[in-house]
Design a protein that fits this description.
alpha/beta; TIM Barrel; Rossmann fold; FAD/NAD(P)-binding domain; 3 domains; eight-stranded parallel beta barrel; five-stranded parallel beta sheet
Length: 677
């Protein structure tokens, strides 16, 4: 195979002595919501089976609690629960006998959404409303026994191993840090005592399972906490975990409550692999690294540089179940790359929704959304090559329909061509690369620079017409809105209009934040340079102070502008942004001195500037430029003209519902429609 030559490290087996992992690509753990869903185990079976067939060497499931106090919903503690899990393990092993599947044991500790939540001390997490119950000696013994029982049940269920998560602010990690462990008994005080609980968990599990059962421990190799773990403590813990019987150490980075992004698109690829490499040199067992490794060449370099023995890719396996096979077959340009947007995956996880993927709506919905070959091919016209049009065209063509894709622009992508220009969103260009290639592979008739009207479509004998013409910016009804100082966000992002020194942005949704980020940015994008990222977010990779961040002040380059971001709503500015990324957008702008004002009434625009009212008091913002980001309206003129044509006409994407340029909704809707045509 081509991949063996191109990616020799990625496709080399890993011998654990008692078993072999066929390659170095792991599907990392991600809670999907299927764990608690109706028919969830059957759906998980289909989900994991596709990834097993896709060539991955090992799969690690989403987190499963060992008991009721460890989480909500999904747990494994009884024979009946083990029988449910067997649905998953048998499906994976029957579809790909050489693929390992391990279950992650996740005890959320103080982050568990239950009044039964426990921790070493009654210290509330910054991100949860509940104060955990401090464990007494009997409670600690119960937790240890429950961990061992859970692992034993996982073995009974047919798993090849377990991964114990000892990071992220979950139970095990809270024993390690003084902030959350204020005990004075054998489980607290000195570091030797504080690490006693996670080490004992590993020892108990090792004793409860067969020698050929894989035990993985996920360690916080850099917890990103002020006064967090020192490097010497991390090494000491890793070595103790190894001696307690773990077969593999998996590295994790950050607690959920830390103020450093580790998983979003604004993080450079493989940003933390070097930390894993440093720990690897201190251990005698294999290590796994993770975070922002989304393409085979990135994984290969990590392995070739000696940073890890295995590479974990969770979200990339949502985006493309066939990622590993495509790399093996030399089809890397056909990989639907994870862009780390988090919009349909982690944002859903942390809001209690089922996980999917913005660029692949089938992820976790394999039993509900399938692209079955049609028995009645149709001639289909798709008008608009933005995310919705591309999603519809490729699914329909994959099913065997003859698709003609029209766009008046000179390139595909629509609003994605704006997004990819924003610093921190460079990955969005990967989606467009994928679609360009799929247009070629699927034989879609692409016609760029080709505006079409209703008459042309009527006369072309198409059996289906799909209107994906997108949106037009909403222009607020405001006196002076045609003033020369007023510009559209589209012109700003494209660089068609000059932006002055003093700027007001009308509208503080996602687009307003993107525009503010763009015009206040200076220098190299942090997403493209690890040194810049480290400076902007205050991480010291070289010296590794406690937590990697203690005593390190973020240093952010900013453009020489004064920017004010305005919104009508009385809610805090940025409240509607993504659950897992919104805080990074807000913090980035704060550090660039962007002023944010809510509950604003817009009065008028004139030569003085933008006239507003706050708390019924008039103000004038003396600005050079006013950028309008006041929402969008559906662009559906062509659809309206075709209503009486007798053609089967459908609306998708922004033309159907404008919203916040919601590519997640657009691609999802288009995929379901194309699957049914």
């Amino acid at each position: 195979m081509i991949g063996n030559d191109r990616y020799p490290h990625l496709f080399s087996p890993l011998d654990l002595g008692f078993t072999t992992i066929k390659n170095r690509a792991i599907m990392g753990s991600m809670h999907t919501g299927l764990e608690e869903a109706e028919n969830g185990f059957e759906r998980m079976a289909a989900y994991f089976t596709e990834r097993a067939r896709g060539g991955v060497g090992m799969i690690i499931t989403g987190g499963i609690s060992p008991n009721e106090e460890g989480g909500h919903g999904a747990k494994l503690a009884t024979a009946a629960e083990a029988a449910q899990h067997r649905i998953v393990t048998e499906a994976v092993h029957n579809s790909a006998a050489d693929v390992k599947i391990c279950m992650q044991i996740l005890h959320a500790g103080p982050l568990a959404p239950t009044e039964k939540c426990v921790a070493p001390s009654a210290v509330k997490s910054r991100i949860t409303p509940l104060i955990p119950n401090a464990l007494d000696e009997a409670g600690i013994e119960k937790q240890l026994a429950d961990f061992a029982n859970c692992a034993s049940r996982a073995q009974e269920a047919g798993y090849d191993g377990v991964e114990i998560i000892g990071s992220a602010g979950y139970l095990l990690s809270t024993f390690l840090v003084k902030k959350t462990n204020q005990r004075t008994d054998q489980w607290g005080g000195s570091y030797e005592n504080r690490m006693r609980f996670p080490v004992e968990v590993v020892r108990r599990i090792r004793a409860a399972v067969r020698d050929d059962f894989i035990v993985i421990f996920r360690i916080a190799a850099m917890d990103m906490l002020q006064d967090g773990m020192s490097w010497d403590e991390i090494v000491q813990l890793g070595q103790a975990i190894e001696h307690a019987g773990a077969n593999i150490i998996s590295t994790h980075f950050t607690w959920h409550e830390s103020a450093v992004p580790t998983i979003s698109t604004r993080v450079p690829r493989a940003a933390f692999a070097g930390v894993t490499g440093r720990l690897r040199r201190e251990l005698g067992i294999p290590t796994i690294t993770s975070n922002r490794i989304n393409m085979p060449d990135v994984a290969e370099k990590v392995l070739a540089d000696g940073h890890a023995d295995l590479v974990s890719m969770a979200r990339p396996m949502l985006a493309d179940a066939e990622l590993v096979n495509k790399a093996l077959e030399g089809r890397e340009d056909e990989i639907n790359t994870c862009i780390a947007c988090n919009q349909a995956c982690l944002d859903h996880t942390f809001t209690g929704q089922e996980v999917s993927c913005l660029v692949n709506p089938r992820a976790c919905h394999e039993t509900l959304l399938n692209y079955v070959q049609t028995e009645a091919p149709k001639r289909i016209a798709v008008v608009g090559a933005g995310p919705a049009g591309l999603g519809y065209a490729t699914v329909a063509a994959q099913r065997g329909h003859a698709v003609t894709l029209f766009d008046s622009a000179d390139e595909i992508g629509g609003q994605f061509n704006l997004a990819k220009r924003v610093p921190g969103k460079e990955e969005f260009s990967e989606t467009l690369r994928y679609y360009r290639r799929m247009i070629e592979v699927l034989g879609i008739d692409l016609r760029l620079n080709t505006p079409v009207d209703a008459a042309q479509l009527k006369n072309a004998n198409f059996e289906e017409v799909v209107i994906a013409t997108g949106i037009k910016p909403r222009i607020p009804e405001l006196e002076g809105i045609d003033h020369p100082s007023v510009v559209s966000y589209i012109d700003v992002i494209r660089g068609n209009k000059r932006v002055g020194h003093r700027v007001a942005i009308i509208g503080a949704g996602g687009i307003g934040f993107d525009v503010a980020e763009l015009i206040m940015h200076k220098g190299t994008s942090a997403a493209m340079d690890l040194d810049v990222f480290a400076r902007e977010w205050g991480v010291d990779f070289k010296h590794h102070p406690r937590g990697g961040v203690t005593g390190v002040e973020p240093v952010v380059e900013r453009a020489d502008r004064e920017v004010t971001l305005l919104q009508r709503k009385a809610t805090p500015v940025g409240r509607g942004l993504g659950k897992t990324t919104g805080w990074t957008h807000r913090l980035s702008l704060v550090r660039r001195d962007v002023k944010m004002i809510n509950a604003v009434e817009y009065l008028k625009i004139d030569d003085e500037g933008l006239h507003i009212s706050i708390d019924h008091k008039p103000h004038v913002l003396e600005v050079d430029t006013i950028i309008v980001c006041a929402g969008q309206l559906p662009l559906r003129t062509l659809y309206d003209e075709l209503q009486d044509s007798g053609l089967n006409v459908s609306l998708v994407g922004g033309a159907y519902e404008a919203g916040e340029l919601d590519a997640k909704r657009a691609i999802n809707q288009a995929s379901y429609l194309a699957a049914a045509v």
